[in-house]
Amino acid sequence: MMSSTLVALALLAQAAPLKSLPYTPSLDLAAMDRAADPCADFYQYSCGGWMKSNPIPADQAGWSVYAKAADENQQFLWGILDDAAKAKDRTPAQQKIGDFFGACMDEAAVEKAGAAPLAAGLKKIDALESKDALSTLLPALQLATSGRGMMFGFGSDQDFADATQVITFLDAGGLGLPDRDYYFKNDEKSKDIRAKYLKHVETMLGLVGERDAAAGARAVMRLETALAKVSLTRVERRDPYKLFHKLDRKQLAALTRRLSWDRFLAAAGLPDVKVVNVQEPAFFKGLDALVAEERLPAWKTYLRWHLVDAYAPYLSSAFVNADFDFFSRVLRGVTQLQPRWKRCVRYVDRQLGFALGEEFVRRTFTAKTKEDTLKMTRLIEDAMQEEIERLDWMTPATKEAAQKKLHAVNNKIGYPDKWRDYSTLEVRPGDFFGDVERATVFESKRELAKIGKPVDRTEWGMTPPTVNAYYNPQMNDVNFPAGVLQPPNYDPQMDDAPNYGNTGSTIGHELTHGFDDEGRQFDADGNLKNWWTEADGKAFDERVQCVRDQFATYTIVDDIKINSKLTSGEDVADLGGTLLAYIAWKKDVAGKEPPNADGFTPDQRFFVGFAQWACENQRPENLRVSAITNPHSPGRYRINGIVADLPQFARAFACKAGAPMVSGKQCRVW
User: Fold this and answer.
1) pLDDT tens digits, 417-434
2) Which CATH architecture has domain 133-196+225-302?
3) What per-residue confidence (pLDDT) applies to 148?
4) Cβ-proximal residues to 192 (8 Å cutoff; 6+ apart), any chain
5) Residue 576: in which H helix or E strand, if any?
6) Are 250 and 278 in contact (CB under 8 A)?
7) Chain-wide mean pLDDT for the chain?
8) Beta strands of 53-112 (E only): which ranges?
9) In the beta sheet, which residues pair with residue 11?
10) Which CATH number fits domain 34-73+345-450+457-652: 3.40.390.10, 3.90.580.10, 3.80.30.20, 3.40.50.720?
């Protein structure tokens, strides 16, 4: 392992903007551990070299192929932003991203401002004269923080019953810790985290002048624990029927007595809203009772805490360091704050991501890459069509509906067809906090403006530089940003086998999400509708249970096992997606007879390519957070757990029955 000094020097050596992206092949021989037995531990065989030569940087909670690619993309975006901040001849979009970045990088100005930027928000909270006035104040606070921290979540989304329309949504929220379970787990580590969280809240309240910050922190913890108690668990929230309760205004008014939704919606600029989807009615009943029983000073302290928590990363070092100390150091084991350029790049991507993304795409994403990945996507869809027809456990009626949904999937590759318009957003040079606040309100209002209008199915939920992908069950679309379609993930210089193993399995993974335990409950148009026969639903659940039983045996860290009820959607997508990619690849190369290369057969290259996207190192603290919050299994099991269920892998590496990578009871859903 590299020493901490060498890691620091390596980070310093990288601390310069990139003018082009570095190249790492999608099948990296140096990343392998050829001494390992692929039939005993395929993850070690494929990733052992990578794990040894890629220690976790001091400013990261974990390090992976995806994280490293994202870091390289960030350095490249830094180059774009550095140029945009200094250039004189700029487009309006370049002006906005350049001035935003320049204001963020002016650390001296941010330090000088201290806590002053919070003064206006704190004054509004201090002026609150009664609990009845909460209904009028909350919309402004929520617009300015764009999160679920202010007592509950509020925004817009597609109507579960009519996916062509956007309606108002209210959701549970109001917590400062990552998950409601943090407030109740009684092991020593959880108790220690709660104690340190209490101290952190006290510190932050002290920074904004709370008279008795210790008492204020106790009030915050009391209120948040009560809110956590009436919130659904993450596993419960995987059932969309538990999140669909569409109420008219009369029903909404009857839901709570102390919170006035007439005043709330009027203050939010939505007085004419007719219906609202209240995702967790029991939460709002509990919240209403809590508003009635808790005194106003406690609520004012709670709101002050969530305001400072939302804006801490954008303030002076006293706030930034305290925020880092708890949420990164304590919770995730990170030892070093990220350099300012990284944070500033991330903030621009968060607030102006499609203006920045247009610059990224223009420099990195070719028409041929889009054409080739679209072809791969279509072949994987063809493979799924054939596999659905072959299923012996699904009846013809359900197969017909499944095929209809499959054929309706919209493939979004690289970037959106139309770029987001930021022309009405004001970005001022030298006003970082103001830029963040205006951008946050701009986005909040943009989302609310969708209410009562048809859904824009061209919209993306990830910015183009993002190293990730997703499936949206209500849009019924798969989305692959340009950022993830770069080496070492998609590699145009490499043969088809590792590309199908890596990017192809990811495409198959996202496509399969349309048919997992959550996605399968939405039809081809994105409506929440049961299109399964009772017998087919039962047969599906039995096959998913096989995967749950398998993954529940794997240890994440210490004695913590995978919560396979939480991860099964991703585990099933990994399994189905890899199989579909393999079938599609075989069809694509049929008759071509790909040669062996680097000492591997084409089949072996497919599986090594599949494994190497998941190479990672994780801090124990981060793994503990993931065990509660992450619906994905750790990388090791996303590889070993999958290949153990695939006879194609066993044949490729001549693994015998009884080998660790050959499951005694091979699971298969699709």
Assistant:
1) 999 999 999 999 999 999
2) Orthogonal Bundle (1.10)
3) 75
4) none
5) helix 564-588
6) no
7) 96
8) 62-64
9) none
10) 3.40.390.10
Nearest residue to 623 via CA among 574, 565, 556, 573? 556
Residue 608, token pair as written in the block? 């090594």
pTM greater than 0.90: yes
Residue type, 45: Y
Q: Which helix (H) or strand (E) holds 124?
A: helix 119-126
Residue pair 216/301 in contact by the 8 Å Cβ criterion: yes
The length of the chain is 670
660/223 Cα distance (integer angstroms): 48
Confidence of residue 14 (pLDDT cuts 50, 70, 90): low
Share of the chain above pLDDT 90, in %: 97
Q: Dihedral of CA 17/19/20/24: which sign?
A: negative
Residue 1 pLDDT more than 90?
no
pLDDT digits (tens, 9 = 90+) for 332-359: 999 999 999 999 999 999 999 999 999 9
| Residue recorded with tokens 């509990």 | 286
Distance, in Å, from the CA atom of 126 to the CA atom of 401, rounded to the nearest integer, reads 56
Determine the pLDDT at residue 10: 42
Structure tokens at 446: 């943009």
pLDDT digits (tens, 9 = 90+) for 574-633: 999 999 999 999 999 999 889 999 999 999 999 999 999 999 999 999 999 999 999 999
- Between CA 334 and CA 332 the distance in angstroms is 6
- Within the chain, which residue ranges are assigned CATH 1.10.1380.10? 133-196+225-302
Residue 218 exposure: Cα atoms within 13 Å on the Cβ side = 3
| Rounded (5°) CA angle 186-188-190 | 60
Cis ω for the linkage preceding 117 (within 30 of 0):
no
Write down the pLDDT at residue 149.
Answer: 83
Contact 631, 567 (CB under 8 A): yes
Alpha-helix residue ranges (DSSP H) falling in 409-488: 432-448
Domain(s) of CATH 3.40.390.10: residues in the chain: 34-73+345-450+457-652
C-alpha 417/C-alpha 568 separation (Å) is 33
Q: Is the pLDDT of residue 12 over 60?
A: no
Measure the CA–CA gap between 663 and 670, rounded to whole angstroms.
17
pLDDT tens digits, one per residue of 87-145: 999 999 999 999 999 999 999 999 999 999 999 999 999 999 999 999 999 999 999 99
